[in-house]
Amino acid sequence: xxxxxxxxxxNGAHFGHRKSKKHPKMDEFIFTIRNEVAIIDLQxxxxxxxxxxxxxxxLLADKKKILFVGTxxxxxxxxxEVAESLGQPYVNxxxxxxxxxxxxxxxxxxxxxxxxxxxxxxxxxxxxxKKERLLLNQQIDKLNLTVGGxxxxxxxxxxxxxxxxxxxxxxxxxxxxxxxPLVAVVDADSDPTGVDYVIPANDDAISSVNYIFDAIQANxx
Length: 221
Description:
Largest sheet: 5 strands, parallel
Strand order of the largest sheet: 5-4-6-7-8
CATH class of the largest domain: Alpha Beta
CATH superfamily of the largest domain: Glucose-6-phosphate isomerase like protein, domain 1
Structural class: alpha/beta
Distance between the termini: 10 Å
Number of domains: 2
CATH architecture of the largest domain: 3-Layer(aba) Sandwich
Mean pLDDT: 96
């Protein structure tokens, strides 16, 4: 899939936020202000998206792990779809504080989930009462929501991809604290500080969200 400024334009990736909400550190990615709305420079979006894809491609070639994070309504399904298609871990429901900075706790919860699922698959749940089986299944469901997307992640990821650093501020701060390379889609109202690969784009419009994820997925297969 060839990334083009025309396609980015058609999908509304250029629409930022009102001038009053624009973050000053995003000025280098703003083309102009039109009708009090910050318009993102799509040539820079194209260049930065291509650079980010190349970075991720090199990581995958080296068998590295990149954690995909996108919990907002517009991005959660695509976050899961793209991560799973690449065989990578993801968080698309709610970011648990400490996922990166207190990874041992997360790893224990993940191991608990895998153990419970293995016991269920082996038929071990049959020895429990109906109520006990219900509680065990509820526990599995809850763990799947919180850490299910992290299967296969037995240590900190080698990099983190975040869709919307404003929504995922805690994830961003944890990645920076752990000094993990950070790729992120950053809208005009957000602070790009600490992001190694900034992809300036509208992170609210579903058409823009889908185009960016589709471009990443298509160019990494």
